[in-house]
Design brief:
Elements: E1 9-13, H1 24-30, H2 38-49, H3 58-71, E2 73-77, E3 94-96, E4 108-110, H4 123-126, E5 131-135, E6 143-147, E7 149-152, E8 158-161, E9 164-167, E10 188-190, H5 195-198, H6 236-245, E11 259-260, H7 263-267, E12 278-279, E13 285-286, E14 297-298, E15 396-405, E16 409-412, E17 422-431, E18 434-443, E19 449-454, E20 464-471, E21 474-482, E22 488-496
Parallel strand pairs: 11-12, 13-14
Antiparallel strand pairs: 1-2, 3-10, 4-8, 5-6, 5-10, 6-9, 7-8, 15-22, 16-21, 17-18, 17-22, 19-20, 20-21
Length: 497
């Protein structure tokens, strides 16, 4: 298990540590240090102290504290955080190969991989993301390698992973398959100062790309050389000289010096010429088009739209196109539909919710595709309703539907007039042991169904029930139950406006 830690904790041998701490926090606090992260304590415990999984229990932390106190080791967080991905040199002892490796192996197994204090090494403890070493040093099979991972095995061995073989000993120090060597078991492995290690450091005479963050806390780099390209740093002297000289006059193709335009210049398209270009000022613009104010530049809001105050609402406007108004429109005066007789029809697609509609003369036909609502008394000579009437005086449609249904569902298609709103009728349920009669009532909207039933209390009773349904223009009679199949129903329903 290896986890990236934001803060790298290193084990520092102490000459003498006297501690009476009862827990880990007190131990570190006595040293003026912060408690290491859970990830680091887990890694340290499982690799050095015990084989069980570290969960931060009281027993595990007591064992952890005992080891630190008895062995005089202090896990010391660095004041400046060291991020994994940085490079740090590594020292060690002489190690041996646990088993032989060929020229294509990308991992190296060592019989042991610990520091001089017998602490098993990990990439976390080494505070680096790459290490360099030499296989079979000072022999004809000597080979420079690098590695990016360390696995400490349960049997005490260690495996180097992410191994790059055959690193060259001359610039550019890249890997080559021809430089790979086979190494028998027990061959020597050391953490060496290979040429690749020195490539990790900046060199004064070489062109280099710096990938780490360099901070200058006391002094800044100095130079007497002036920049010659757009990507080069400049010294303070160059910056001061350019600022003192000013800049070129701005044009449509070149950024430079301009003059801020006044309100008057903005209003009359002022042109200062090539030597004095003027620009608009945001302080003179508005998106709300205030009636009071000195603004004369109209700008859209963040929605991309203009405010209604940008138009003079007291003026008359003539719109010749087909305009659609989806909202509620209020008119404080009359709405003129044409100017001479015969007047143009006023077509209302939705619902009219006004107290009155006044007209002096009209020869045209007005069509209402929605509802015509009259909140007060309506006085008309002739009011023709061609569609469905949803109110008014009870009126018989001179239409009725006679029905007779012995079983199942009986549908009388198109029997309900389009102008009908309710129906009144009767029914007779005929049974072997007697008949049941009653009244029938249905409406177009709301109570569109009615259920009737008949039953006898004798031992030979016949139980039956029926449902009447208003379905569009169809009158439907459905038999729901008929215990002994002895029932039938018939009758007549009359349709009313």
């Amino acid at each position: 298990m290896k986890k990236l830690l934001t803060i790298i904790l290193t084990l520092i041998a102490s000459t003498s540590i006297v501690s009476a701490s009862t827990n880990l926090w007190e131990f570190y606090n006595e040293q003026g240090l912060m408690l290491p992260s859970y990830e680091y304590r887990k890694d340290f415990y499982e690799q050095i102290l015990a084989e069980d999984e570290y969960k931060g229990t009281a027993k595990q932390n007591a064992l952890y504290l005992q080891y630190l106190q008895e062995n005089n080791f202090v896990p010391a967080p660095k004041a400046n955080e060291i991020k994994l991905g940085a490079f740090n040199p590594v020292g060690g002892t002489t190690y041996r190969l646990q088993s032989s490796i060929g020229t294509t192996d990308a991992s190296v197994k060592l019989s042991s991989f610990k520091n001089r204090s017998s602490i098993p090494l990990t990439m976390t403890l080494l505070a680096t993301d790459i290490g360099y070493g030499t296989l079979s040093p000072q022999t004809s099979r000597s080979e420079f390698v690098s590695f990016s991972g360390i696995t400490q095995n349960s049997d005490g061995t260690a495996t180097l992973t992410g191994v790059t073989r055959g690193l060259s000993d001359i610039s550019p120090f890249t890997a080559s398959t021809t430089l790979r060597q086979a190494h028998p078991g027990q061959s020597v492995f050391i953490l060496s100062d290979s040429p690749q290690l020195f490539e990790e450091y900046a060199k004064k005479r070489n062109d280099m790309a710096i990938t780490g963050l360099w901070s200058f806390n006391s002094y800044l780099p100095t130079t007497s050389i002036s920049a010659t390209s757009s990507t080069q740093f400049t010294n303070k002297n160059y910056v001061d000289s350019v600022a003192n000289q000013g800049a070129a006059t701005s044009t449509e193709t070149n950024g430079g010096i301009v003059e801020l335009g006044t309100l008057a210049e903005q209003a009359d398209s002022y042109d200062g010429g090539a030597t004095k270009p003027t620009v608009l000022q945001t302080k003179n613009s508005t998106s709300t088009c205030q009636v009071v104010g000195s603004y004369n530049i109209v700008a859209s809001s963040t929605t991309g739209k203009l405010d209604k105050n940008c138009l003079d609402q007291s003026l008359n406007y003539a719109f010749s196109g087909a305009n659609t108004h989806s909202g509620v429109n209020s008119f404080s005066n009359s709405v003129g539909i044409g100017t001479t007789s015969p007047f143009t029809s006023l077509g209302v697609a939705g619902t009219i919710t006004a107290n009155t509609i006044n007209a002096t003369t009209t020869n045209a036909t007005s069509t209402f595709s929605g509802n015509l609502v009259v909140s007060n008394n309506a006085s008309t000579t002739n009011l023709t309703i061609s569609g469905t009437q949803t109110g008014g005086t009870l009126s018989y449609n001179a239409s009725s539907t006679a029905y007779s249904c012995a079983s199942g569902t009986c549908t009388y298609t198109g029997s309900i007039p389009a102008t009908a709103n309710f129906g009144i009728g009767d029914f007779l349920i005929t049974q072997t042991n007697g008949n049941n009669a009653g009244s029938l009532f249905l409406v177009r909207i709301g109570a569109t169904t009615m259920r009737v039933a008949a039953s006898k209390a004798s031992a030979t009773a016949n139980d039956c029930s029926y449902t009447f349904t208003w379905s569009g223009s169809n009158f439907v009679v459905a038999e729901n139950t008929d215990t002994n199949s002895y029932c039938s129903i018939d009758g007549t329903i009359y349709w009313y406006k």
